[in-house]
Each structure stands twice: as C-alpha cells, then as structure tokens.
C-alpha cells in the first residue's frame, strides 16, 4: 500500500522531530511518523534541562570551551560554535511556544528562569522545567503539532527501511502497521529523528530506548556512520533490578549531591578536582570501579544534606518516583549505577542535518554532527536537537524556494523519480516473539559485558564473534527478517557489530572509549568512519 507524496517525511517524534515539524509546517506538507513508544523514548525522559548561554554572567566562549574539554579533543569546533551560538535563540523559541520553564525566585538574579549547573559546565546555564524538562518540552510541542492542519501524524507505523530512486536519492520510507500490513510513504525529503542506540545494552536510562535502527536504515542507502564507539553511560541510574529504568538527573549532583562508596565515603574527591561534577565518562568509570570493588552492586547518591525543602523544590519528579519504589530521598541515599544513555556517534551530517544521501537528513541523537566529540557534555543533547532541527528546517525551506523559483507558476509539482522496488515478504511465519526477544537479550548481555564502560581487545573479539553468531541465527530463521520486529532486530545486531568494529579500530583511550590495552591518547585525535560495506568483511 502506498500513500500520496509529502513534502517532508519525519520519522521520530521526540524533541528534534517535533521541532522540525512545527518549523516547516506553515510552508510544507509534513507527515510525522510517531510510534507509541516515542512517549517512552529519550526526549520525554530527559530530566536535567537544556544548556545555553542565557545569563548575562555567562558567555559563548565559556560554553564552547567547556564543550571542547568534555569532548576530549574530538569535537568539531565549527559544529560546537554553531550549536552554542544558536542556543539562546532556540531557547527563546521554546519559551515562545509556551514551555513552562522553572522561574527564578531570587529577586537579585539577572535571568528570569532558574539556571542550574551540571558536570563539565563552569557556570549555571541549564534551563529546566523542574526535573522533568523533556516531558515539559515534548508535551508542549506535541500539543502544537496536534493542532497544526498541515501535519499528518502516523502513530500506527513501525518504519523498517528507506526508499530510494534509481539515482540513489532517498524518496521516503516503508514500514508495517499494527495489523502487519506494509505501507510505503513517499516524500521529497526524509528526515530521520529516531534516536540513538542505548537499547543495544542491558541497562539503560529510558524504558523504551532505540537500538540504532535509524542509523542502519541510513547506512543501507549509503550514509556514513561516525564515532559509534562513543556510547555514553549516564553515571546515575536508579539501581532496582526488579523495576523499570529510571534516570537520576545530573542536576542532582549539580545542586550538591555526593557520591558515596560502600563505606559511605565520597570517592570522587580523590580522583578529580571537579569531584561529582567531572564529565560523565570520568564519573561513570569511577562508579564502575567502586562497584567492582564492593559487594553492593551499586554506589550511593546522597542529597539528604540539601534539606527537605530544597529536595521538594528542585526534584519533585525524582522524589515522587523514588518514593513509589520505596525510597525516601529526603531520608535515604539513592542506590545508583551507570547505564547506557546517549550515543555520541551516528549518521554523519553537516550543520543542516544533511547526510551523504540526497534528500536524506538526520537530526537529534541519531546524527553525528561533531558537537559531542568523544563525550557529550551534560544537557547539550536537547540543545543539539533544537538547534539542528531549526537549521534543517531552514535548509528545507531554502531548497523549496530555489525549486519554486525554477518552475513556472503553471507547472504542477514534479513527480517523484521511480522508487527502487520494495517487496516485503508475504510469507507468514509462526515465529514466536520469545525467540526474537531471546536473541535481543543475548545481544544486550554481550554488549554490556564486553563493549561498555571499560573495554579490552579480548573482550571486543569475543563480542564480535558472539554478535556474528546471533545475526546468523536470526537470518537463518525462515521469515524472521521479513517481519517488522525481525527487521529491527537485524538492524540492531548489525549496528552492534559496527560499534565493536569502531572500538577495535581505536587504539587508544579517549572520552567514552576506555581500553585497558590502549590506556593512553594517540597524539592525533581522529574521528572514526564506517559504512555498511564493513559488515561484508565481518567473517
């Protein structure tokens, strides 16, 4: 089944996808594919806030410098400057949309909204909506999207691949609906906003994380993937093996929270002069080391000394959620562990979100813009979503103006080029979802054991062999990859292998990639680059 052509097809309904839709919908027809699981994805669960230079006491160069330091020599300076410079306007756009940011109550403050501080930042520059910023932003933008007459939402589809024409340009996407019927969605421009790849790991900070499926869809059309080895682990996820994932915001440490070991002692003081506010890679490795030395299986994050009033004021969502899990954070320290959180690598793009494939764009966590380098600094993620969604919108609108200028008023819009044939299998399968679930869990166990915070040559070799075996098992199951669930799992296993290959190629420790066999930096910092053809040599 095929749908009529749209000007722009956006796949993914987090902050990046919603922002783009709203920025272009007055001028272009938009189809927004936003599956139900997007409400459990990374954007809605972002707690801390958005980093931007907003206070008169802060400045652009300071934010740029902090970002470059956190990125450990691998940031693209142009991308950093572009993002930071456009940050204040992006925040003002959100304010104009009605996002309810937390106001500043101090009459002496020089900015009307409360700004907090997080790891790696040398100033208070994190604007937030209490401790549920992502939810506030998504809900506000989603309400605007629902009211816009030029945006068609598709909540019933799971996109599993992209369409291309005879020249290799992207012409839309295809996927399966809730009744297992296949659909193609044609479009002049396609934008991927499908999130990162933290779902490759067992422990994550979001209930329904992506596993890099969008990255592999782009790679299948010829897009380059960069810096896949730099998977960020948030230092503090609630430790509760029996319950769902829940992030404990970095703002908790920004407001003065202490990390304690099994003996109840602060351990970050001896490791880094920034203590609990060191960049995430430093803190995550320190926590991981403490966990290995103890029998607890976690460390403690203590904010009792802040007092009940401050805790209720700054962290109402965390307070309520922990209470629902039997933890009173005004009286008890919070048990925390590192968990897969953010993919610094992804689909290589320029400053407008354009990929190597004509008519295909990527924005948000799926993209590798060069902003984060080897380690994302806290709260630069939603900033990147906003800035690059808005710059992508300008590129699409400028393209439309150029196209219109080349046409006579009487001309009809040009028809799409012929789309390469897509024929999803009509073969039905009795494949049990438990079989696919088992393969996925084994993939996550392998990645968590061998390709997480600390890596080794031997562990990466083992991981690659195990992942290859799992992919072979999947592909040998008749009809498996012809289903939406099987196709997504195939993409996840492929991306997991490429992540290992990227890690194997980096003979150093840098940022989020810490290798026991290569503990030092190489003199020259270089980005990694892979394509789908690298999988052809996996044997």
UniProtKB/TrEMBL annotation:
Reported function: Catalyzes the oxidation of L-aspartate to iminoaspartate.
Pathway stated in the Swiss-Prot or TrEMBL entry: Cofactor biosynthesis; NAD(+) biosynthesis; iminoaspartate from L-aspartate (oxidase route): step 1/1
Family: Belongs to the FAD-dependent oxidoreductase 2 family. NadB subfamily.
Protein name in UniProt: L-aspartate oxidase
Statement: the UniProt record of this protein carries the keyword Heme: no
Swiss-Prot/TrEMBL cofactor(s): FAD
Subcellular location: Cytoplasm
GO MF annotation terms: L-aspartate oxidase activity
Domain FAD-dependent oxidoreductase 2 FAD-binding: 7-382
Record's catalysed reaction(s): L-aspartate + O2 = iminosuccinate + H2O2
Ranges for domain Fumarate reductase/succinate dehydrogenase flavoprotein-like C-terminal: 440-521
NCBIfam families, alphabetized: nadB
Keywords: FAD, Flavoprotein, Oxidoreductase, Pyridine nucleotide biosynthesis
EC number: 1.4.3.16
Superkingdom of the organism of origin: Bacteria
EC class name: oxidoreductase
PANTHER family to which the protein is assigned, alphabetical: L-ASPARTATE OXIDASE, L-ASPARTATE OXIDASE, CHLOROPLASTIC
Primary subcellular site in the record, as a coarse category: cytoplasm
